[in-house]
UniProtKB/TrEMBL annotation, chains A, B, C, D:
It catalyses: 5-O-(1-carboxyvinyl)-3-phosphoshikimate = chorismate + phosphate. It comes from candidate division GN15 bacterium. This is Chorismate synthase. Its EC number is 4.2.3.5. The keyword Nucleotidyltransferase does not apply. Keywords: Amino-acid biosynthesis, Aromatic amino acid biosynthesis, FAD, Flavoprotein, FMN, Lyase, NADP. Reduced FMN (FMNH(2)). GO terms for molecular function: chorismate synthase activity; FMN binding. InterPro entries: Chorismate_synth, Chorismate_synth_AroC_sf, Chorismate_synthase_CS. Pathway: Metabolic intermediate biosynthesis; chorismate biosynthesis; chorismate from D-erythrose 4-phosphate and phosphoenolpyruvate: step 7/7. GO terms for biological process: amino acid biosynthetic process; aromatic amino acid family biosynthetic process; chorismate biosynthetic process. It is an enzyme of class 4 (lyase). The gene is aroC. Belongs to the chorismate synthase family.
Length: 292, 292, 292, 292
């Protein structure tokens, strides 16, 4: 059973993850982890901070000469901007006296909770007046550690022939015009890697970029929808003995635990509401002689 | 920390749930549990089986004279149709020899997996040729035990002023025309209890019923969308220290663990994709002086 | 992964356990469960209550015709003395008004915490003035549910050739004179089943009985030590990736969770303190050419 | 709820621990963690390796200026001997070709399982022919990460007035002559810190040292018994609703998860077997009017 913990503040010295439960004997490709970290950082119209970071993973346990030992794996992603933050974010050293009251207040403390973030709720929950003490961990920066950990899980699944692809199907008003073919995920991956917005349709991709530019011009932001495709899953993952081993629930729980994700669908999703049962895609197993 | 296990086959003698972690001293209203079980069984156009069941809960531990002891609570929902199933579903007694080969095959065994169900995957996973051994537990009947357990959790939350309401916003092509007001959940509850399809708009409700009747006439089914509203949640539920204590993830995980649920949204949900960040409802905490 | 919850008060209507995770296709012998429940109730010098109970298990889910389905198993042990307790322990009905103040106080409430029990700590923890609300669940009666659940786990292990035996090696000052041979557990089991104190040496067994009688005469009690022997364990149970999958820790944790158990040893146990490393029994794998 | 994972091989670059669940606002004393790490390394008669290590903790997350943030804490203990091991233990780089067959075999691979260790079982479980792949994680070196994590938990408990002390009561045949007084733990701590074998009686301490020297002379080892004393525990830790929240079970489970620990007692422990119930120390709450 895989389990993991992550740690690290957004502007702290490093993110760390410990992944327990990966079996022994699996060769791990570090460049794959770094490739996924790079994909996380890309993004049309992303701000300056992402350029600074250039995340790279270091592995500090659990492998020997690139092969898993069956022991827990430690992943470290150093904060490349740490030098600029060490004074006010040092885990141990006290805040320097030399920091003037004004600088201290400006650089150090944050008292205005941002909408749509954990600042206000976290400040109340943890009894913190300086909201930096909240936002540093609540930050989506933490997902870099999940991406690195996820890349390990993906390498395990790929070892068993499971294949992954994802593409952006909507940004703002710009949405793809037709479903992508699911039978050639390698091609889908190579097309979306070329697109700055990971869109499989080049014209729609340009509309998406325009939507982002326009929002950015007004100092605003815009949302999107991503489709994730997984093929080759072995039969029987998850279970139905209890609510907490249902595969759909586990997938949705993991996805909605990503701060920016506000909705998850599986299969037809919400569209199923307007579709007759007899038309549902899942009906591919339907046997005409079967009891409906 | 609340945790629970449920047990019971769809046509077995009973469903059972054990809920651990409810604090001592909470008065429990059994009629509320039965009311929620009744709500689960209602439904415009539902088949005959639901009429048979008439679920009622019996409490076998964890309360004394209607008040929680802090010890685990046992909930039992007996199968009112057990007499008809006892021969072929008895947990212990062998299948009677008197059952002829043909009857046995007809009544007892199921070899055709139904689309959209766990039959095929479960049969492979558990190495079962008689798929009744799979579908009996994979059945959505199990959610009756979750409803009863959930009613206990709800009574705990209501004790602290948390308020719940839900209503159906879409069935097939029929969808509500405008958002319901969120400031009077009691009124919303009373309106939807009157509606056979739990719709807050009477005209839309009639369209929903027509959609169901039409699908049923063609021996087909149709989907829907439900909105759940919770008010008065204390600040700070969930957390952001790890992926698995994020509140959104936990809610989505629990909802998607209900067999029929194929999509979950929180807040704006997928609509957020087409909405500028500055227009998002969550921005109610926005402080004009704050860093956006 | 096996997990289970138990429920039920000592004088409530029933004990219930739900065991999740037993694989499908395992034949279960109910008489084995009842045999283990009977063994739990026996005991030289035990009081009257044990005679009343005569625990018997009923299975309400998870099996079909005596074979596991892979779905959770519900075990019920009814309280055979429930009729005498229903008035003051009913989970739902209010305490009858007819119960006079004096009777009520005598039969119903308990205000004096017993030494060596959870009464005092539980009363403070759960804010209960009537300590019956604490002791009913803290009671060792709950271990009957664990015995029934454990019998299912044992049947799974026995299916794979794991063999169990246990015997009493000390009661008060009476202790066995020499180690029992470990190579014939069937013989050990049959000898100890014959002994009222489960002692493998008949003379020592009589000394143990005398120790119990003597203590009882003085309205006192006396302790003992049990040795549990398990053979045929597959290599590799437990693990060393984290503290919480170490087999020794899991065994000790389960044993010390039995209210009366105050110490646990594995292998040489405390005796290892006085034995040179080179003499330790575990050294059987020692290879003379190996690095010590 | 506190939870933690540790990671790191015995001769790998570092040990890492992530502790999740410590509340925000707790000042942490790093010197206390290092003091506990030093205590772990001390030990009369310990071999050379311990001298090399000189463990020191670095904190990489979860604190800001020495105070907890409520976010997970990352503890790192670097392997000070890493330079000597990096060639054959590098997590990522391949084993250098320049390593001759003989050196490689000698320095790198281990094929002889040691008695009393996880080598044999681990090699079978993880399908490893080079037992170094097993012993590196199974090694008791991992307990350094537990000690560092435990020091954080101890600082939380000390904040609430809980006090800890421990002393060695037996090594080989040398055992303390009388119980230590429990009312002055500070004095007990200062006496045992002075003793090379942490014995509270100076004469017995010298006997213990002699026992160690004598065993060592014969290239052998000798065991011991430690008593741990905790005072000021708040009432109500643990619980009795399920087997897995019983405090005794949790303590014993954690202690027996330490590789060298073969027995755990709480209170009178095994001695309770020979003591009448009326004489048990726990009887201090006994109320003469109470129902025994």
């Amino acid at each position: 059973m895989l389990r993991y913990l992550t740690a690290g503040e957004s502007h702290g010295p490093q993110l760390t993850a410990i992944l327990d439960g990966l079996p022994a004997g699996l060769p791990i490709d570090i460049t794959q982890i770094n490739f996924q970290l790079l994909r996380r950082q890309k993004g049309y119209g992303r701000g300056g901070r992402m350029k600074i970071e250039q995340d790279r993973v270091t592995i500090r346990s659990g492998l020997r000469h690139g092969v898993t030992l069956g022991s827990p794996i430690t992943l470290v992603i150093e904060n490349r901007d740490w030098a600029n933050w060490s004074l006010i974010m040092d885990p141990v050293k006290p805040i320097p006296a030399a920091l003037g009251v004004r600088e201290r207040r400006l650089a150090y403390e944050t008292h205005t909770p941002r909408p749509g973030h954990a600042d206000l709720a976290g400040g109340i929950k943890l009894n913190q007046h300086d909201l930096r003490n909240v936002l540093e961990r609540a930050s989506a920066r933490e997902t870099a550690a999940r991406v690195a950990t996820g890349s390990l899980a993906r390498q395990l699944l790929e070892h068993f022939g499971v294949e992954f692809a994802s593409h952006v199907i909507r940004i703002g008003e710009a949405a793809i015009k037709k479903d992508v073919p699911l039978n050639n995920l390698e091609r889908l991956r190579s097309i979306t890697e070329e697109s700055p917005v990971r869109c499989a349709e080049s014209k729609t991709g340009r509309e998406m970029m325009a939507a982002i530019r326009e929002a950015k011009k007004k100092r605003d932001s815009v949302g999107g929808v991503v489709e994730v495709i997984v093929r080759g899953i072995p039969v029987g993952l998850g279970g139905f003995s209890q609510w907490d081993n249902r595969l759909d629930g586990r997938l949705a729980g993991a996805l909605m635990a990503i701060p920016s994700v506000k909705g998850v669908e599986i299969g037809l999703g919400f569209a199923a509401a307007a579709v007759r049962g007899s038309k549902c895609q899942d009906r591919i197993f339907y046997d005409a002689k079967g009891d409906p």
